[in-house]
Design goal:
Strand content: 25-35%
Helix content: 10-25%
Number of strands: 15
Distance between the termini: 15 Å
Number of helices: 7
Shape: globular
Structural class: alpha/beta
Strand order of the largest sheet: 10-9-8-7-11-12-15
Length: 286
């Protein structure tokens, strides 16, 4: 998950939001956050320690604060920005006991505003959202695929897998060399890294689905644009997990705006997701 794209739940979300006065809706949502009986989600204030551009329209933000609410790689946070109606959901790239690393792309007014925030600024953030990846299913040679800003949630997963003695291969897909980021960081973890750009300006030329068929792997994890994930579904040789990008309202399962139909019933991308197993996905419903 990353700055999230417009998805199947948008019509439902718009109806839920714009059928009420904005101030009243904001108040109800924030009250629900305070009252929610869920020990996995925390609402804290974080201080910006770094907010730097690392690639074309792509920024890394490092925040200082309590990260105890994060329990799994592949989860996301939801950031409240002053002057904006909805919080911004951003996937967790990395974290330790005192810091949280996010990577985001400027795709709208909210993320443009985020890119201007100076070091020392404070942000109200919901932490510990979503289910995350199941690293126990990886096998010995897992494949991690990240498309654009779908790459960040793969970083902490890769770190965890390497620490467990696994030998991951990481495929990173971008449009052009100017957008490539974190290829060296993944390599430094000990992963075999394959960079793919659509124009061939760096690494292999083409799409991630052009290189995946030639790779051997025990299980896979993927995050990126919906078009990439759907294309992957036609070439993968093993079961795996997909992390979906979806426009959200509340970010913790209350508004139902990001629900999608699966073989196991309806699931909320923000709560039972964003990670779904390949076996349960109905691609026509995504």
């Amino acid at each position: 998950m990353a700055p999230l794209s417009r998805g199947a739940g948008t019509k439902c979300l718009r109806g839920a939001i714009f059928g009420n006065a904005e101030n009243s809706a904001v108040s109800r949502r924030e009250t629900a956050i305070k009252n929610r009986k869920d020990t996995t989600m925390t609402n804290n204030i974080y201080k910006i320690l770094e907010n730097e551009k690392i690639a074309a329209n792509t920024y890394r933000m490092i925040l200082g604060g309590d990260t105890s609410g994060i329990r799994n790689c592949g989860q996301f946070v939801n950031i409240r920005l002053e002057g904006f109606y909805l919080r911004r959901p951003i996937s967790v790239c990395d974290y330790d006991e005192k810091t949280l690393t996010l990577i985001y792309k400027t795709v709208g007014n909210g993320t443009e505003f985020m890119s201007t925030l100076p070091v020392g600024s404070e942000l109200d953030i919901l932490v510990g959202l979503g289910n995350g990846f199941n690293a126990d299913l990886s096998g010995e040679t897992p494949l991690l695929v990240g498309g654009g800003v779908g790459a960040p949630p793969m970083y902490n997963l890769c770190k965890k897998l390497v620490a467990a003695g696994k030998k991951p291969t990481v495929v990173l897909g971008f449009k052009t060399a100017e957008e490539v980021f974190y290829s060296e960081e993944f390599s430094e973890l000990g992963a075999n890294v394959v960079v793919v750009t659509e124009d061939g300006s760096q690494g292999e030329k083409g799409m991630v689905t052009d290189v995946i068929p030639g790779l051997d792997y025990s299980y896979f994890y993927a995050c990126g644009p919906m078009a990439m994930l759907k294309a992957m579904a036609g070439v993968m040789k093993t079961p795996g997990e997909y992390s979906f990008e979806q426009r959200m309202g509340c970010g913790f399962g209350a508004c139902m705006g990001c629900s999608c139909k699966t073989k196991n019933g309806f699931k909320r991308i923000c709560h039972e997701g964003p990670v779904l197993s390949s076996e349960e996905i109905i691609w026509e419903e995504m």
